[in-house]
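Many introductory courses stop at the sequence. We go one step further.
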Amino acid sequence: MEQFFAFLTGNPLLLSVALVAAMLIVLSFFRKALQLLVVAAAAGLLYAAWLQVSGGDASAFFRQVQEMLSSSFGRLGAMLKPLFELLKSWK
């Protein structure tokens, strides 16, 4: 593995190509994740509209979704906090 990294650092052109390819892969992942989020939001809105038309309680559905998202983002923030603290300490 060390030979591979030594080879990459010895060839700046190859290193830049590898970095661009890695960035494209990461951006592609985020683009797909955003598309999935948009589809999930559209499905949630369609479900809420169906609940409204059929006489269900759409506000309870949105309350549950809000609580779930709030707790998920809270857990995500708690998981990422040590990473951010580590990045701050590198100054």
